[in-house]
Amino acid sequence: MIKIAIIDDDLDIILAMEAVLQSKNYTTITAQTMKAGLRIIREENPDLIILDVMMEEPDDGFFLAKIVRKEGIKTPIIMCSSISHALGMKYGKSEMIPVNLFLDKPVSPELLLEKVELLLKK
Description:
Radius of gyration: 13 Å
Largest sheet: 5 strands, parallel
CATH topology: Rossmann fold
Number of helices: 5
């Protein structure tokens, strides 16, 4: 069974993503802080990580992605954030932000499933 980690400080977003992913028989594990997110990644070894940018600190998601990659964890990461809407910033894949894909919040269920399935096939 495919396990997906959702790491976001917004419980409503976690619950919405869980409902979408579980409707397609994915198993989900969740965390609302960077520290708890790192713990579930290390302990649960998910097949995919969905990660928010801003949690307790404005850059927690970026920092967590860098830690994960530095530890040699190659699990695909989808970074979701509304920061580009709020600040007009656009992000792309780079060494500074070592994720596989960026999605702007709010993410439609269809787009979320499309991107999850795309990364799980790689």
